């Protein structure tokens, strides 16, 4: 059972579900309806887990050659390709049934589009076709807050799209930092990640440029009235640290800095969404 659990990429899926849940809470001034919160969370989690399992199957050959992924369940033989596909299909089917029957059809449709966008469009085509793979494919990864919002309101609000934009802009500097650290692995299996096709220096520059863009985008919740001063104060600190990492990478070649930047970017997104949530409920009291 542990091997099947690993097929779901639990850490990645946890981040997906967390941002979706925050989207649910931000969609209403009070608390989300318990059924939308419970069934919406379960359905989105199952869809994300299904997409992760499909990704394991489709990437099985390159996973076997890369140091970072060679110990995944399929390359090690602990789970067969057929079993993994059946597992992914069962998760995906359960997700769609829960969302369509117990939440709303809009959330089911958007979640299905995200599942296909990540597990098929990105993994099968974009990942192997262009060094801008993570930029274009980032749309699927940025969808969870919109899915959460739709689960509660049965609509897509401009503020939900703002949450989408934050994650969409965050994705390139987050993933390119990892791509620099794992450049040799990607080169070995022929995946055209930006550090492989355009070099590490070029990638460092683009990490800095995207981090600057991210800093501007993350001010929009305050500027549009979605969030207040509590969020603004916190996000300025988070952005300053992210910019420091991006500048340090641009100026130097310290070993280990790309992975430190990657790890910080994960904590950055968690803390940013926690700030959005805290500000949402504390602002009326301040």
What layout of secondary structure does this protein have?
Layout: H1 2-7, H2 10-26, H3 34-58, H4 60-65, H5 81-102, H6 105-129, H7 133-141, H8 144-153, H9 158-181, H10 183-189, H11 194-198, H12 200-217, H13 220-223, H14 229-251, H15 257-282
Helix pairs in contact: 2-3, 2-8, 2-15, 3-5, 3-6, 3-8, 5-6, 6-7, 6-8, 7-9, 8-9, 9-12, 9-15, 12-14, 14-15
Profile the largest sheet. Answer: none
Q: Given the structure, what is the number of helices?
A: 15
Radius of gyration: 19 Å
Q: How many DSSP-defined strands?
A: 0
Mean pLDDT equals 93
Distance between the termini: 48 Å
Shape descriptor reads flat
Low-confidence stretches: none
Strand portion: under 5%
The secondary structure category is mainly alpha
Order of helices and strands: HHHHHHHHHHHHHHH
Q: What share of the residues lie within helices?
A: over 70%
Report on this structure.
The chain is mainly α and 286 residues long. It is built from 15 helices and no strands. The longest helix is centred in the C-terminal third of the chain and has 26 residues, at 257-282. The mean pLDDT is 93.
What can be said about this structure in brief?
This protein is mainly alpha-helical.
List keywords for this structure.
single chain, 286 residues, mainly alpha, 15 helices
């Amino acid at each position: 059972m542990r091997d099947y659990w690993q097929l779901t990429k639990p850490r990645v899926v946890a981040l997906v579900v967390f941002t979706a849940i925050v989207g649910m809470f931000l969609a209403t001034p009070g608390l989300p309806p318990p059924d939308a919160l419970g069934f919406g969370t379960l359905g989105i989690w199952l869809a994300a887990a299904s997409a992760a399992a499909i990704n394991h199957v489709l990437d099985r050959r390159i996973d076997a050659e890369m140091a970072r992924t060679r110990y995944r369940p399929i390359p090690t033989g602990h789970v067969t390709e057929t079993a993994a596909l059946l597992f992914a299909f069962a998760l995906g089917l359960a997700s769609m049934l829960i969302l369509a029957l117990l939440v709303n059809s809009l959330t089911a449709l958007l979640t299905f589009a995200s599942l296909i966008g990540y597990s098929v469009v990105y993994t099968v085509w974009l990942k192997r076709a262009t060094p801008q793979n993570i930029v274009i494919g980032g749309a699927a990864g940025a969808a969870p807050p919109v899915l959460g919002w739709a689960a509660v309101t049965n609509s897509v609000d401009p503020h939900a799209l703002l949450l989408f934009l934050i994650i969409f802009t965050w994705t390139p500097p987050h993933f390119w930092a990892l791509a620099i650290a794992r450049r040799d692995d990607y080169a070995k299996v022929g995946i055209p990640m930006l550090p492989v096709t355009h070099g590490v220096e070029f990638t460092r520059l683009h990490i800095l440029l995207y981090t600057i863009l991210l800093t501007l985008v993350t001010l929009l919740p305050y500027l549009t009235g979605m969030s207040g001063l509590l969020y603004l104060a916190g996000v300025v600190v988070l952005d300053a640290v992210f910019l420091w990492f991006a500048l340090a990478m641009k100026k130097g070649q310290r070993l280990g800095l790309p992975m430190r930047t990657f790890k910080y970017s994960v904590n950055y997104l968690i803390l940013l969404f926690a700030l959005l949530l805290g500000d949402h409920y504390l602002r009326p009291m301040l």
